[in-house]
Design a protein that fits this description.
The complex is a heterodimer of chains A (298) and B (375). With 298 residues, chain A is mainly α. Chain A is 69% helix and 3% strand. Chain A has a two-stranded antiparallel ribbon. Chain A is globular and about 60 Å long. Chain B has 17 helices and eight strands. Chain B is globular and about 70 Å long. The chains are: A mainly alpha (298), B mainly alpha (375). Chains A and B meet through helix 4, helix 9 and helix 12 of A and helix 8, helix 12, helix 14, strand 8 and helix 16 of B. Chain A: One of its GO terms (molecular function) is transmembrane transporter activity.
């Protein structure tokens, strides 16, 4: 039972990270209709910026997180301004490819600046644990879950009660009608990229504070977060969180019971479980669990 | 004497470029010039390996040719049918392993292992194709992305076939009956393995390009483009969209598997690291740079993009700031530079020249066709 609960907890922590990344995907998709493959690159960039602030410049960890998020937000908004804005109205294939191209430019840039080595990110969580009723929980995992929960709440409040949130929802619903109401689509697009990049940086730093440390391969987590976003439905923030948790749990449980139950499937089968789960669910619900079915006209 | 000519002129003999009937529009060679051009190209391919005997340049051209085959396959699926696939590398890998089993372990000759790997590719494509019926656009892109990771897991764990992480040697020899293209002997002249493979690969490029061209200029090609532009509208005008989507997956992955088989046979050793997401992206870069929805563009892009990694590798010591070996001087590794260049090429071409190299070529051609009147 304890093993099971430990695995569930690990799954929740992993799922929270996925949820953060997936939320970033959804924000951009909802307002601009683009799946942002470069999210992984922004995530790695945010994590490395956090490392520079916390370790090289010796700024307090909490402040470093905020600075890294702000810096990533600026990068995200600039990418939108310089590249993606030229692609408004182009077919989705072209825009997806642009973001893939961006990912392939950002990744080598990061290794060119910070190198390939595994860097230790100085953080107050380290490998400390707390014991709750016989369960040993990692402090970092608790923080990850807590931060994600806070972000999700802030997210829903932002979309529900602020002018910008309303503008973003209106643009997502119908860009032309939103323009006619005096909403600046440009500001909405730039803001959504900034928010997504900040979320990615947050996910990157919580991930880099973990046992894996900080290495260029950290951007792969975004590829693993695709199933989370697709599973929940491309345009549903709630779906992103739900998908993230489901995928995180599935992955952690498969890893936890690898030796007992899944040894037949080969080593590290937990890494492809998200994709298998996504494919099965998509066959049943082609628009994810909470996604809107798009209405198609001829 | 001048009667026939005179009347012709009086009636206004149409210019040879004018297309007046449907049969004319369907012609494989639009004008006599294109026949001459094609003949020149084939002659160049025949003669080239006897002029360029350098193993490095020949191997660059062989890899470009193999890539061109795979790119034609992807262009049929993505450029013509509009189905985004990030999983092309999966089918290429499957083809290489099929060649290793059929050509290497069973020791069967070239036509058999080439067709066997095409058959394996077609079957796998037929299994993946139906997903395109349920999913479209973004959802399909991510599912095919999953294919790469699921495939990688399979390649690393099906050790009997793939040799696991270390890979497997591919013993598929390029032999047709008594002729061994790996050590060709013709009229007392000996040709090297690279020369033999050059002819083999580029002959296959020509054959597959011809087949693909025939496919896209006739009814299936029009159907594919109708599906690409709007699958529901295509259904309304009588195109079985589902059938053509699956068909495109089958044909495209069969061609991809052939490219993989040739790759394995030429390289003689393949490992799971050969079929990563980077390979899929490289193929997408090729069809974007070459020109989406053109057979010619796929070949052009393959020569341009496919040759880049080898050239960068060869001349990395001459490019400032590039580390030639791990831990060497320079701020960027060869691998990272390649990756960045693919990324940049995709972004720049999509933003500034969405029709690719083929688009530039058509513009140049149109300019000279109407010369001296530009428009």
């Amino acid at each position: 039972m304890t093993t099971f609960l430990t695995n569930v907890f690990a799954g929740l922590a992993l799922g929270s990270t996925y949820a953060l990344v997936a939320l970033g995907f959804v924000v951009i998709y909802k307002s601009t209709g683009v799946i942002n493959f470069a999210q992984g690159g922004l995530l790695a960039l945010g994590a490395y910026l956090g490392y520079t602030f916390a370790d090289n410049l010796a700024i307090a960890f909490a402040v470093s997180i905020l600075l890294a998020c702000a810096a990533a937000a600026i990068v995200g908004a600039s990418v939108e301004r310089l590249v993606l804005r030229r692609m408004v109205g182009q077919p989705p294939f072209a825009v997806i490819m642009i973001t893939i191209g961006l990912l392939f430019v950002i990744e080598p840039l990061i290794t060119a600046i910070w190198g390939f080595d595994n860097l230790p990110l100085a953080n107050p969580w380290n490998i400390q644990t707390v014991e709750v009723g016989g369960l040993v929980l990692g402090v970092r995992d608790l923080w990850t879950i807590g931060i994600t929960a806070a972000v999700v709440v802030a997210f829903f409040l932002f979309f529900r009660y602020t002018r910008m949130g309303l503008a973003m929802r209106a643009t997502a619903f119908d860009p032309e009608a939103a323009l006619a109401q005096g909403i600046s689509a440009r500001r909405v697009y730039a803001t959504s990229w900034a928010i997504a990049a900040a979320l990615a940086a947050l996910a990157g730093i919580t991930l880099a504070a973990g046992p894996g440390g900080l290495s260029p391969s950290i951007s792969f987590i975004a590829l693993a977060a695709f199933p989370a976003m697709i599973l929940g439905g491309l345009d549903s923030p709630a779906g992103a969180v739900l998908g993230g948790v489901i995928i995180g749990l599935a992955e952690a449980l498969t890893r936890g019971y690898q030796d007992q139950l899944f040894s037949w499937a080969g080593a590290n089968v937990s890494l492809i479980v998200p994709y298998l789960l996504m494919i099965v669910i998509l066959l049943i619900r082609p628009y994810g669990l909470l996604g809107t079915k798009d209405v198609r006209r001829i | 004497m001048s009667g026939a000519r005179g009347t012709n002129r009086a009636q206004g003999k149409p210019h040879r470029n004018l297309v007046r009937s449907y049969e004319q529009d369907l012609r494989l060679f639009g004008s006599p010039m294109s026949k001459v051009g094609l003949g020149l190209m084939l002659a160049t391919l025949l003669v080239l390996p006897t002029v360029v005997r350098d193993d490095f340049w020949l191997s660059v051209l062989i890899y470009s040719g193999i890539t061109a085959i795979g790119a034609i396959g992807l262009n049929l699926l993505t450029g013509y049918c509009g189905q985004i696939s990030l999983g092309h590398a999966f089918f290429i890998g499957a083809g290489a392993y099929a060649a290793a089993v059929v050509g290497g372990d069973l020791g069967l000759p070239l036509p058999v292992w080439l067709l066997a790997s095409a058959a394996i590719g077609a079957v796998l494509g037929g299994l993946i194709g139906p997903f395109a019926l349920r999913l479209r656009g973004h959802y399909l892109a991510i599912v095919t992305l999953g294919l790469i990771f699921i495939g990688e897991h399979l390649w690393r764990n099906l050790r009997d076939v793939t040799g696991g992480n270390n890979g497997t040697s591919v013993g598929a020899e390029a032999t047709v009956g008594p002729v061994d293209l790996g050590a060709l002997e013709l009229a007392g002249e000996n040709y090297s393995r690279n020369q033999g493979y050059f002819w083999l690969v580029w002959a296959l490029v020509a054959i597959i390009a011809l087949l693909a061209k025939n496919l896209v200029r006739t009814r299936p090609g029009r159907a594919l483009r109708a599906v690409r532009d709007h699958d529901q509208a295509a259904e309304v005008i009588g195109v079985r969209a589902g059938r053509y989507k699956i068909g495109a997956f089958v044909v495209s992955s069969a061609i991809a598997a052939m490219a993989g088989a040739l790759f394995g046979s030429y390289q003689q050793h393949v490992s799971p690291d050969d079929w990563t997401l980077l390979l899929s992206i490289q193929y997408i870069a090729i069809i974007i740079v070459g020109g989406l929805g053109t057979i010619f563009g796929a070949i052009l892009g393959a020569i341009f993009v496919g040759a880049l990694p080898a050239l960068i590798d060869e001349y990395s010591s001459a490019i400032p700031g590039v580390a030639t070996e791990a831990g060497g001087d320079g701020f960027i590794s060869v691998f990272a530079l390649n990756q960045a260049i693919f990324g940049l090429l995709i972004v720049l071409f999509l933003v500034f020249e969405p029709r690719g190299l083929a688009g530039i070529w058509f513009r140049v051609k149109a300019y000279f066709k109407a010369w001296p009147f530009s428009y």
